Amino acid sequence: MVKGIFDELAKPEPEPFHRRHQRRRDLHQHRLRPRLQHESPKVVRALFSLGADGTVGANKNSIKIIGEDTPSYAQGHFVYDSKKSGATTVSHLRFGPTEIRQPYLITSANFIAVHQTIFLERYDVLAQAAPGSVFLLNTYVSKDEVWDSLPRVYQEHMIRKQMKFYVIDAYDVAEKTNMGGRINTIMQTCFFAISGVLPEEEAIAAIKQAIKKTYGKRGEKVVQQNYEAVDQTLAHLHRVPVPATVTSTLELPAMVPANAPEFVQQVTGEIMAGRGDDLPVSLLPIDGTYPTATTQWEKRNIALEVPIWDPDVCIQCGKCALVCPHATIRIKVYPEEELAGAPDSFKSMPYKGKEYPGWMYTIQVAAEDCTGCAACVHVCPAKNKREPRFKAINMEPQPPIRDRERENYDFFLSIPEVDRRNVNLRQVKTNQLLQPLFEYSGACSGCGETPYIKLITQLFGDRTIVANATGCSSIYGGNLPTTPYTVNADGRGPAWSNSLFEDNAEFGLGMRLTLDKRLEYAIELLKHNAEVIGPELVDALLTADQSDEAGIYDQRQRVAALKQRLASLNGAPGLKQLASLADILVKKTVWIFGGDGWAYDIGYGGLDHVLASGRNINVLVMDTEVYSNTGGQMSKATPRAAVAKFAAAGKPLPKKDMAMIAMSYGNIYVARIAMGASDAQTVRAILEAEAYDGPSLILAYSHCIAHGINMTTANDQQKKAVDSGYWPLLRYDPRLADEGKNPLQLDSRAPKIPLRDYVYNETRYTMLTKTKPQEAARLLALAQEDVTSRWHLYEQMATLDYSDEGKK
Amino acid sequence: MDLTTTYMGLSLKNPIVPSASPLSYKLDNIRRMEDAGAAAITMYSLFEEQLDFEAASLTHFLDYGTESFAEALSYFPEPYDFNLGPDEYLEHIRKAKEAVDVPVIASLNGVSDGGWIDYATRIEEAGADGLEINLYFIPTQLTLTGSEVEHVYLDVLNNVKGHVDIPVAMKLSPFFSAMPRMAAMLDDAGADALVLFNRFYQPDMDIEELTVGPHLVLSTSDEMRLPLRWIAILYGKIQASMALTTGIHTPEDVIKAMMAGADIANVCSVLLQHGVGRIGTLLNGITTWMDEHEYESIEEMKGSLSQRAVAEPAAFERANYMKTLQSYRGLN
Fold it and tell me: Fewest C-beta in 10 Å: which of A158, A469, A588, A667?
């Protein structure tokens, strides 16, 4: 942009900026296109397309090695996307003999490394390759077969630009050297070996020195493993001869399919392709309102393995769909005739429940959207009797079945959704038949927050209105270019917005007040014009029972009738206003989403104020016990004895008891839930909170990568948190006090395992035992006391006699 | 009455030595074991594999998800230092040595050549009086031969003996095709003692959940017959001392161990069941028995029921099997 202005000024007759500004020429496709190619031939310009494989760290190390230990100069710039799973990072590195003053990205690179083959499908990764440059690819495909496996465009680039082509199977080297999936050291070694920025021996020595520095304190074994990976790398790095002719007929797939909406084609797809900077301003929404339902166009294919359903073993419990963080496991029931035209590999089985006699049942995975966390497989309670290592859902490599499952999923989506009126919302096995209106987000693989959000969109559907605090949930909830909140077959879906970190509760209250005011006005107009509209319809609209899905459905029919009637009347201004307000007559549900950083700390004052307002709002706190989005800083939700940033020596004080604070008001519905411990209690609490005509606060245990845990088995940790008494499940329902019952119900039993059996499965606790063992022991003892004494307190509170309260 | 014995060159006041177990995690317990009469303490095992695993999993989780999201380049604070090596164990050995007067025998389970040598050397430096090699190894590969398995043991022993001067004991499993040959080879290689036998915890099955998992069962007196037999067979044929481990619960068990030819009796399950004070009860029982049976010393009974000393040496061999079967049928 700035370069474009300078280029314009260099013209013999530059167009005056103010005129350009006045005439908004850029809104008429006249854009300033920067051309930055001032690169010295002596500078090594390297572009790395990476995922979450730690290579950015290795790139930073490379800069340090060259910048600090050699006479050369070094520069690095790192471009991250906003995804928390399957992220793409592009490193722009320059190394040269003279000082580098180029504050712009590389557009002509002489070294391009692609660390994940999936990028080859998404972008033209060699578009910025300079003539004679090097292309390094990490791939499973062997050196003899790799050339023919490449899409045509890459073969053309390499032939035309006379490029040198290298391949390595870094995952294989990583596995052989016990590096897990970590390929950073391996790819860094390849870069030094090929690029020649340092003599090979010197480079290897420098890499090893950097390894020692980075990993030294993590134990000699870790250092040795990395050394071993370096040593093994060169033997597995192969140069592939570039033939003279193109052999491939493979084309790069379009960024978004042809049936995507126009906006997705023109804007979303371009941003996805990394060409967002080239978009003219005129194409962007003026008020910042972006269409929802756009993650469906972003087939990211990031999972190496995806779950596949085995109907022979399935007991139809629905737990796999419930825990899926990305809504990529879907369940439908349908009459058998819907199977007409199904692909041969499409699976189905008779539905086992009584609700839909004679209907069929299918669990289908969205293989291209799954992130491969395998949480579904872990929670599946059904085991194959012949081989118990198999369950009713099992992980299989994704690439060989991708096309087949895409076809199956497309067919699955074409089957009509179940009628919401006939679904028992209280049971997991039936509420998981409902369409989630939150899908394929960019949240971490195995995220512990998103299953709660997804469940809420299933339970309340398109009537959900969400105010979202800043944090992980605002990033995966609305990170451009795509939006995971989606729409149903009627084109309706949740409305969502993110204001600020500190004012989210007030933001949500504002939504409530607006809805209430609009409803009030609509009622006023209805009453005022009752005679014109028809007293019967007006009466039905005003007295409708909308406490269940059938009632909601009927009200929608009435609103449709009202709109029709109003259109036919073509009358007074009041009626026109009523037409624009008619939809408000269908009950809405206002949700305020946020994490603990918002609820316990930064937004706490406002949250308290909003809870005390008595208004009908529902607050979901996805409690990860740290500021997850910014990298695990301590919040007041962080438990005693856990390590976090700003609590490196273990948090010395206990977690704030938000449930207790909220219960002290007496008129707030409060619940503490943990889906992994009791999904039934989770569902119950969410339904009760929503039904309560007043403020509700739900504290949801949300496991997080900031806990330092295996995300596949994280639901086990939720169970242990509850079993140890650390996270007692409870519901506090003010309505019960009115009935003379104790409003507090403990939904979990007295602690049955010691706290250590829960906490010492998590790195946030165990790392303290490796840094300050005595302090760890002291804090653990205190934390255990916290648990024990709080349980006693809750137990006493839950057994108080309220019979006198009811008589009041 | 003389209860003293000599085990791997160490003079012990009696033959009762607690074996490697969680009982030695706490210094208090170590002191109490000495007070109760333990002649030496075997420390819990240092597992190289566990240390490696801890370091690897710490590294995995500290690195997981890092450097891929601009707002959160990491998720944990980076401490100045981690205690990931054997330091905690070594410190424990040092403290144990300060806390008690009886010999302290360390126990080591390594995985790599470097690990065995490095940790053994550091254990010696920390002041341990002896080292027990706890080679907990289950050969499951179809290609691994018996002779290769034997060499795993010999190599470890050679490596460790080549680098430390403290006496070294080999804790063995009973699953060798030719136990005497194995014992002789280890003896030749300089093993100061053989500890017979390591008790492998066998996994159990849960037929409701269709899972297999660890299942800890404490030993019973019956289980000591296996080591008893082999000690009786080996007694007098090798230079190395012998410890009988597994199944010692009563004073009579200790006496049997001595009569078979063991130099010490290792105790564990009995202490886990009844507390470390049980060592005193065992010692009292032994002296009472010796008094009643007019034995002057432990040395006097050592090996008195070994294969070479008894009237029916064949009792330890195949004939034993035939007899057992016949007597079993007879009972019916």
Answer: A667
